[in-house]
Each structure stands twice: as C-alpha cells, then as structure tokens.
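Entry 14: structure prediction run for Cellulose synthase-like protein D3. Input pasted below.
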Amino acid sequence: MATDSNALRKAPTIHHYSASMEDLDSEIGSGEYASYMVQIPATPDNLPGDSREISKNPLNGNSQRNEDEFVSSSLFTGGHNCATRALAKDKVIDSETSHPQMAGSKGSLTSCAMPGCNANIMTNSQGVTIVPCECDFKICRDCYRDALQSGNAVCPGCKEAYVEQEDLSKKAVDDDKQSFHLERRLSLMKSTESRLVRNQSNEFDYTRFLHEADKSYGYGNALWPKDAVDGDNDGTGGEPKTFVEKQWKPLTRKLKISTAILSPYRFLILVRIVALALFMEWRITNPNEDAIWLWGMSVICELWFGFSWLLDQLPKLCPVGRVVDLDVLREKFETPSPDNPEGKSDLPGIDIFVSTADPEKEPPLVTANTILSILAADYPVEKLACYVSDDGGALLTFEAMAEAASFASIWVPFCRKHDIEPRNPDSYFNLKRDPYKNKVRHDFVRDRRRVKREYDEFKVRVNALSDSIRRRSDAYNTRDEVRALKRWRENNNDEFEPMDILKIPKATWMADGTHWPGTWTIPACEHSRGDHASIIQVMLDPPSDEPLKGTATDSNSTDCSEVDIRLPMLVYVSREKRPGYDHNKKAGAMNALVRSSAIMSNGPFILNLDCDHYIFNSQVLRDGMCFMMDRNGDRICYVQFPQRFEGIDPSDRYANHNTVFFDVNMRALDGIQGPFYVGTGCLFRRTALYGFEPPLAKDQTNCCSCCFPRRKKVVRVASAVEIVSEENRSLAMGEYDEEMNISLIPKRFGNSSMLIDSIRVAAFQCQPLADHPSVKNGRPPGALILPREPLVPSTVGEAINVISCWYEDKTEWGHDVGWIYGSVTEDVVTGYRMHERGWRSVYCATKREAFRGSAPINLTDRLHQVLRWATGSVEIFFSRNNAFLAGPRLKFLQRIAYLNVGIYPFTSFFLIVYCFLPALCLFSGQFIVQSLDITFLVYLLAITLTLCALAVLEIKWSGISLEEWWRNEQFWLIGGTSAHLAAVLQGLLKVIAGIEISFTLTSKSGGDDGNDEFADLYIFKWTSLMVPPLTIIMVNLIAIAVAFCRTIYSNTPEWSQLMGGVFFSFWVLAHLYPFVKGLMGRRGKTPTIIYVWSGLISISISLLWVAINPPSGNAEIGGSFQFP
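Run finished. Output tokens:
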C-alpha cells in the first residue's frame, strides 16, 4: 500500500468524466459506486423526473480540446488509494454566471471566439497569447488547424487570408501530436540530486537545499530575465542599475514612545516591585496569631499574585509604534524604471486563506462577504489568490462561494470605480454615516442603487441555498427510488428478492445533477463530516497579466470602461478526511492550504483570516508588504494586525474588544522580538512556515544561555554569499552518502516534487528589493513582472494529492513545518516556534482598522471562548513548547512573555481562594492581619497608587480608554474564577489520564429579537462555568449580612475588622458586576435557575455556618469542630 501511495504522489493520474444520466442510473446500488467517481449528466438543466430522452453531452464530441480548459470548469476530487479525477462542470450553481473568470461560465478571457467552441486560445511557452490574424480574432489551436485545412486559410473573423500561416500551422499540428504531460512545467531548473549535502551536524542541510540551484527564478513560474541586473550572467549577482543614482527611502518607520511618558512608566514599575517586596517581607514577618489559617492562605495567594504581575509587566518595558509609507512602496514597485519600463507591479504574490468548518454555526453569507472583501482588496489582481478551506465539506458552503464569485463581477468593479470603503458589502450598506459623502462621480448614486439591488438578491439566493439543496436532493432521490423500483418490477423480482433490499442512498445533489463528493446532509459512508474525498474547485480562473477594461453599457448597468474588471483567483478546497486519521482540526486544514497553494499559485506570503474577519481597510495588504519588503524585512516571519470587532455592545460588558491585550501587550512585545500570533489577521512569510531560520541570524547568547542551552542545530536560510562558500567547502570534503540526503527531503515536506521545487521559488520571491547596498539578501528590480504560467490540470491533480489524509504520514508537517499540532491554541505555538528559531515579528496597527470581525457578546459563549484559550495555554505549559525549554535565540523578555502565556490559567486557584477570604473573614470575625495598623495601610496604599499610576500611563501611550482598562480588570476576575479553573482541570486530565479535549465552534447566529442589534447579549444559556463565580457572589453577600448583624448586636463591636472584610468583599463584587448583569437577562428577567442556585447556596452556607459556630446554648450542633 505504501508503494501505491508513493506512486500516486509522484505521478498523479487525472481522469476526465462526462457521461449520460443512464450511466449514472446504472451505477446506483453497485459496489463500484462507492468510489470517488462522480459521473456527469449530459444536460445540466435537466429537471428531476423529466421523461424526455437525454442527448449526448457535447463535451464528448470534442475529444481534442486542450486540457487547460478543464481547470476552471472541473471539480477535482481524489483521496487515499484513489486516482485523482477531474469532473467536468458546466454548471456550478443554479443562478446564471456572466463573468468570464467564473467557473462553469460559457466564455473566458482566453476562450476561442468560434461559435460553439470554449477551448483556450493559443499561447506560447511563456503564456503569451498568439493571435494569427491582425484583426485580433482569438482562436484555439484546433479551430485554427481546421481553418487552415478546410477553410482555405481564411480568418473566421475578418474573412481575410492568414499571413505567415506556415509556422503557426506547423506548430499547431506538432502540438496536437504531443501527449499531455502530467508533470508541471516549472521555469525553475531542477537541481541535481547529487548536490544535496549534509551540514556539520550530519543532518540534512535544508538551507543548502533551498539555495543550491544557481538558476534564475521568476514570479510564479515565469523566468527571471538574464539581463535584469548587472554583474554575473546567472542573474543572481550584481547591483541594480538605478539604486546608486537615487536616494534610498525606507518603507517603514519606528515611532518611539515619548520619554516624558515612558521614563516615569519604567520608574513606577521599579517602585512597585520594591513596594511589593517590602510588603511581602512585612506580611511574612507579621503573622496573625489569632487566625493563622487566614494569614497563611492570604500570604500564599499574594506571593503568587506578585509573581504573576511581574511576568505580565516586565515585557511592557519597551513599547513602540510603527508607520508605513505607501507612496514609497508604489514608487519602488509600481513606477516605470529602466528595469520595469511599463511600470508593472513588482510586488510579490499573496495567498489568502479563509477557513470555515460548519455552515450552521458559521453562516455562509458571512463567509461570502469576507471573500468579497478579499477579492476587492487594493493589490495587484494577478498577484492575489484566495483559498477557502471548507473543513466540513458542505455543499452549502461550496454553492455560497460560487454565488460570491458570481456577485464579485459586479461588486469588485464598483468598489474600484468609486473607492468604496469598507469593501464588505454587508458592512458597507449598513453604514450609519452618509454614503454619498466625498463621492464626486455623477453616476455614483445610480451605480450604488443598482449594486444594492443586486446584493439584496444575492443575499436572498445565499440564504435560500439550504432549502434549495434540500428540495433538489429530495427530487433527485425520489426519481432514483422510482426508477430503481421500476427496474425491480421489470425484472420480476417479486418472488426472489424482497423490496426491502432496495435501499437508495439519500445523496446530496449538486446543481448539475451529480452527487456531491463531500459531506451529505444525511451522512453516508464516504460522505460524512469525517469521511469524504478531497475536493478542489477553481471558482475564478487566474487573471490575465494585462488589465482588462470593462465596457460602457446602457444606463441600467455600471459603466466600467475605465475600471479593471479582472478578479483574483478564487479556489474552493476541502481536504480529505477518513476514519482512523487524526486531522488536527484547524491546524491540519491550514497546512493543507499551505501545500495546495504552494503548487497552484505559490505566493511567497500568506494571509490567514477567519471566515468572519473581513478586510476593513483595502490597503492593508500593502501595509503588511511595507514591512516585508523593507530593509531587514527578510528577518520578519509575520506581521500581526490587531483584531477589531463589530456588533459589540456599547459598554463592552465582557471586554470583547480585548483592547488591553492588543493595544498594550502586543504593542509592548513589538519592541522586543515581536507580538504573538493570535490566529487571524496575520501575514506570514511562507519560508518561515516551512521551518527555516531567518537569513544571517547569528547565534545569539544572552544571560540565560547557560540555563537554556540549545538542544540541536536548526537549519538556517543563508545568504547567497554563504551558500557559494558552503558549496566550495562541501566539494572539498569529498564524497558523501547521496541516497541518505535524498531520503531526508520527503521526511520533512513529503514526496511531492512540485511542492519541494516550489520552496526555492518562494524563497527567492519573498526577498526584499536589492535597491540599496545595505540590503544583503535582495532580489533585483523587475524580477517579478512577468506573468505566471497557466494553471493546468496536472497541477490541480498534484494539489489534490498533497491534501489527502495520508500525505503527512512520516513527515514533519505539524511538528516543525507549518502550523504546529498538539494544542487547541495552535496559533500561539506556531508563532512561538518561529521566535525560537530567531525570527522576529511586527505589530502593524494601521490608522484605519485593518480587519473587522465578530465576537460572542453572550456570556456563555464568551466564557467558552476564554475556556478554549486557557486550555491551550495549559497544554503549552505541559508540552515541549514551554518557554523554559526554549533555545537561546528567544530573547529574555520574550521568554518571560511566553512563560506568562502558559502560567496565567493557574492563577485561578489562588484567585478563587482570595475571593473567598473576605467572606471567611466576615464569618469568623478575624482578618488577614492582626490589626489594621499604619504599616499595613501605608503598604496597601502605595501598591494601589502605583497600580493606578501605571494604568494611567499605559492609557497615555497605548491610546485605550479608562473604561476599557476597567472592563479588562473585571473580566480578568470573571474568567479567572470560571473558565481558567476549568481549563486547568481539563489540562491536567489530558496530561495525567490522556483524555482529549474537544471544543465546538461558537455560533455566530443572532438572537430571536430581530430589531435589537444586541439581542445575543441578553440570551441566557446555563453552563457549569457559572457555578464558581455565582457561589463567590452569594457567599460574600451572605457574609456581609451576617457580619453586619453580628457587629450591631455585639456587646463589643469590632468595626475595624468589619470594615476591612466589607471593603474586600465589595472589591470582589465590583469585579463580578458584569457577570451579575449577564445573569439578570433582559430588563431584569432573571432565569429561574438563578433563584434555584441562589437558594441552594444560601441554605448550604447557613447550615455549614451553624454547624461550625453553633448558637449559645446549643453546643451539640456541630460537635467539637473548631478552626485550627
């Protein structure tokens, strides 16, 4: 079986199918139908139950069609021990499609103009269109050959004779005789296997592998011109022609915090550290002899709180800000120059990943709006590719994406023509401000009205897809049952076979009348959420290299004569899932996208977004590219953008905005080694995801090198100079074991030769522009202006293979390559691994928010979200990703920050105890100190004042508000007493007992009240996470009442102890106030469960207290129990 798998990886076999409906009916009930072969009916528009004869599919009569046309009009499927199949699709969705890039459309930008023919026109080896006649009549090779042989060599367009047709005719005939090669024709010159060498540690040297070929690379598969630079003939050396003659300008600038704010901030941190040390020394040396148990618990908790605060505060010593200069970016990469005479874009490509898993909890309309915002982004169209990962394999998501691709032909030109912001249609049409402000074009009102009408129809179609699929599937299934019953009766099986054996599977049907190869609505074998084939559908073809202007139409349509109507490539991907395989949740889906995109488009940079996070600032891709293309940008592994949210209640009751984390912590980390990776809104360098180290990263030693030695040598991406010297040195070393070196490549990346070859191309394309002597690892200007090679079926077939469930077996995917497995917070672990290798990251907070998304405003959903984050942190603490075990390239303060990530959930134990201490003090009549003397009050005042002063200064340099800071403090206690405690317990169960932790997606559906934007805020859903904070609230309220009554009726009232206990109880209750409001529901409609729990807790506490401290004269109650 292993041999067969390897064979499939090396040479994918693609089968094209197009058969009649009778062939489909004959397969129902047979054993072979369980394979991934999905037959295509002859007439896509054939209605279920139609009794008319079905004509033969016209595709069958055109056997000589070029294979390229099947990419956009075919659904590619495949999987484990199954040949890859390209299923011809003339119809993807029920609605009509008009844009030439839309999959399944009748025309294309490169389609033959002959009536009835949809083949691709002739192109040369570089993908440049060949037009044999001066009239510019586009014709395919087959039609051109027919015109030469039977049409007297006359052009079908202008009716004039072809000129110089001999050479073209010979080329057409020669090309027709050649067989279709299944290997991708990369411009990258394949290096000889004998040059693969090992490094000094006798391990395979992936750095040498990455840079070993002294050949020329270009954008995608395009060649890098030899004369692009002066210097060596190999095209890799020398200096650009122009950078010496003009002043070099940086793309980014670092903005340091004002000294007037930062110096006092650092000084106060030092003062508070000293005050905490003196306070703890006093607390330890002055115990409360009357209540030693109270004193002991409080001291232990306070020591931990001081340690936790120190871990959180130290990484905030060096906050910075950053700004970009987009004008300089355009000047360097999109302005005509001697190396780029036409001013084509020299920017590298970007592959954008959008992940979704469940269309019920992640509405397809939300995902579709995110896709539309991506397709309309302000970035070179030919350099952009969007991949949608549907981990549920749902037809609902597939057809919603097809609808989005169709509507994009209207929405994207409208955005480009009128500079629309934001470019999410749902957000744009729901703006509260005046939409006509600053719009000067006379036709804006008419265009906006038309697009709004089209969008309303688009929403209706998407929202109706679920019912449409269900009705369609019921009709087809009923037809199949009727036909099967008819055949059963015609065969006279009444006496031999009972009718019960006729079990027709309840399949889910596509719009063209074929079985959906993914997950069916009624799950069946090989068609369930965890058991289905790989699926790839190119929804939008890769765009042409040249801009394509629209036409000036009538008054009822948008005038796009001055607008580029091209659309970026859009690809639907659903990886294979089979029982018995660990698919590793979101991390596994992202790695599948990394591999498939490397083969299909190979953008050197990757932006990943959640399905509900859309591009709010159309310039954001250029903002991120400023950091990557700047000097020393080749050492940046990713650019993290802040997360901003819509639909949050004005008071932000549960701190959903997370402004303290994003605007304080992340900005502070940017001054050390970079911010954490937080799962979405992150622009990656592809080679960093592949596990390589940054270029020229020298082994750095710091004060903790002796405590944290490096365990092993990790590979490093070296500069060209280092590679040349290393090659010479390796040749002097003599012979080496060639077979061992070759065998190590599949161990890391898998057996796909296309994937391995794409790594070097991406490594070259992601280099900054070599326009200054200080840029050591740069590429020459104009190297990425040539077009990509056309996308062919063999390429998509290989992409199917690399997303199969078996591909990662015995490789380093998920361990050292790609997104890292083993934690529910795979984002933090992935970023940590990059920082550990020596990479640095950048935090980019743009003036206009980069991305916007949705967040759960319901209390229960919010607690479950925090539970997942905290559980991931516990997993990190008990894994090899603990910062204690990191190598010396992780800076000291960055190590402290990652330590805090793994440790903060354990604060919940001490926090819960400390929240009960005020109530215990009030019940017992004691306090944590012997008496409220002046020393204790002075220390308490100093610690409190320094904390408040630090908060004020953080607000000054971060730009957050005081209310946001206070909401963060409140939810820190709410989460610490509920979700964090459960996360620690679940993490311990996983470590000790091996019990796996599973989480469900947070539902993004609205509440029942359609007129209330914040209806979800008032929905109450009971969860066990609410028990600890509810218990704390009830215990403290009862304790205050008991202590107050006892003090009033006491002969010698001790008001100082009462006030101390009441003060700390109110401190706890003030932090839990948002939790109480969440329990109350809408307008005081408190759920019954709250009264039940309150009564049970009150009765339990009362009985417990009576047993511990019985009333006078009833000494028998409670026995001889007493506090120690």
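Notes: Residues 259-285 form the longest helix (27 residues). Will compare against the previous run tomorrow.
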